[in-house]
């Protein structure tokens, strides 16, 4: 293990994406992440392309730097094993509704009895003080609940559309990383463990409304909701003569340079629509439409050369496939082909941050189901005979058992 969280032990009871993404980051940062799975494993093990059952691409990306332990938490012996593991942990993370944890007799109060210093962190749909408290939540539902599809339609989509990425899961996962690391810092100073809730709906509502509350920020309101520039139907990659290009014109300097490139250097001084950022925002639809009409007069390469020469914000439009071959990502070593113990050669993404000291490293590639059951249970004080007995009861599954089932 290496990295800034070396020595931190996390009991990871999460599944699918939101929680596993958060704990993958924490594991990459050096924490010892113990992934607790049911006997049939995390659902996402079977989602998407895979060479072997239970080891899909999405699972491999979201579950590296972890150890896998199978426990049947509905069985008394499985619950007891979980509490014994948690007794020596710094953090327990779950992403089911709190009511489900209570039914397992694994509420904060129950876990804190065996470890009062633990951070008990819940990632779930809705804050428990409102009428949605017991509702189930998934990325698509939360995207809809915070108006992302509606905003897409306001910005020019023919119908309401979800963002083509599990952005709610990943944004809330990042919020959980923030909460956990801050909670660890607080405990370092105070010695206090605590319960922390990270609800999806409220986290994403803050994320969206920060841009789009607009005039409703003020009481009484001084204008409508919505960030006009972001909702402009022409705020999209511009069509050129032979393709598309991503260009941003925002401040005075950028607009002045662009107008000079198209042969109208005096327009900012003669057209009141361009004179200030306030006026440009008032007329952003017509200004962006003007840019959209000009861009097809040159090729992508011609525009790129001209805009880069003028030190203007411009970027190519990638596909997912071309992004995988991006020269910048290649130069910084973003992708690496590693040898997975069971899956062979896989393409792994680097930890994005760089540290002058305590550089994080990927501890291990994603585990097979139950790969570390015996190891972690032994660390919790179980003898070999007791571990075999747990397996015989079905309270755990060992690595060989899990492999045999596939």
From TrEMBL:
GO terms for molecular function: acetyl-CoA C-acyltransferase activity; CoA-transferase activity. SUPFAM superfamilies: CoA-transferase family III (CaiB/BaiF). It comes from the Bacteria. Keywords: Acyltransferase, Plasmid, Transferase. It is an enzyme of class 2 (transferase). It holds the Pfam family CoA_transf_3. Its EC number is 2.3.1.16. The keyword Transferase applies. This is Acetyl-CoA C-acyltransferase. It comes from Cupriavidus taiwanensis.
